[in-house]
Amino acid sequence: MRIKNTTVKKKQEEKDMSFFDHLEELRWHIIRSLVVIITIGIVLFINNAWFFDVVLFGPTKPSFISYRWFCDIGNAIGLGESVCFSPPYIKKQAIGFAEAFTTSISVSFIAGFIIAFPYVFWEFWRFISPGLYKHEKNAARGVVFICSFLFLLGVSFGYFVIAPFAVNFLTGFTIPGVENTPTLDSYLNYIIMFTLPTGLVFELPVVAYFLAHLGILGPQSMRDFRRHAFVVVLIVAAVITPPDAVSQCLIAIPLYGLYEVSILVAARVTARKEKKELEEEEADRKEMNS
């Protein structure tokens, strides 16, 4: 009984919080998140020699593990040496007076955000969850784990799959009389572009789940746009991969699979909503008849 009263009192206090109280609460969630991001960023900056050589410059090295994976997969499925490739030698340069220093700082903290994403999202969820109804919390159960997993999976896909293909193609594309010598800032901007947005794209099933739960998006509309989505995926795969069909398929298949998973998620949510509505209508009819 005491536990129940404490819970009710706590909910009442949360309900009675003013706008500025909510801002103060949000401020502390942001501060804690920034502390974790900054701490990880400082650790990466201190170890920048390893971080740059092994992690950031990894896709530019023939010894990068993805090149061996592609070759092994190609041989295993009968494609032979068609997907065996390695990047040309890339000589990177820092042309600004403090470019190496400033780039090290910025990239370290961006990587800090990526690594700390599960904690940052957990802090965000702790801020908004008290304002949700019980059925909304039940609908979003496990959202922190699922969103974190999909985000890190997307970043890994961009790093281990998209980045090697893109680095190989972009550095191998030359114009007669022009030496392709990328700057440090240019190279790292592309690596970020291949990974961070991909992590966000992999949140598509979660977005589909909540939009379907709100009744904004349905599985049928996603099925109707299936052909358009397929064309978009092929265009994206053609842009970021070398100009051969095998490489494009290796990128396009997982991205399109993500769209199909989103359709299944939306269909399941819609079916559960329709079943619940039918049960409520049946209960109302029984109540009226009684």
Descriptive notes:
With 290 residues, the protein is mainly alpha-helical. It has 2 domains: 17-199, no CATH class; 203-290, no CATH class. The chain is built from 12 helices and no strands. It has helices at residues 2-15, 19-46, 48-56, 65-76, 99-128, 134-139, 143-172, 184-201, 204-213, 219-224, 226-240, 245-289. α2 (19-46) runs antiparallel to α5, α7 (143-172) packs antiparallel against α8 (184-201) and α11 packs antiparallel against α12 (245-289). The longest helix has 45 residues, at 245-289. The model is unreliable at 1-11 (pLDDT under 50).
Summarize the structure in short.
With 290 residues, the chain is mainly α. It has helices spanning 2-15, 19-46, 48-56, 65-76, 99-128, 134-139, 143-172, 184-201, 204-213, 219-224, 226-240, 245-289. It folds into two domains: 17-199, no CATH class; 203-290, no CATH class.
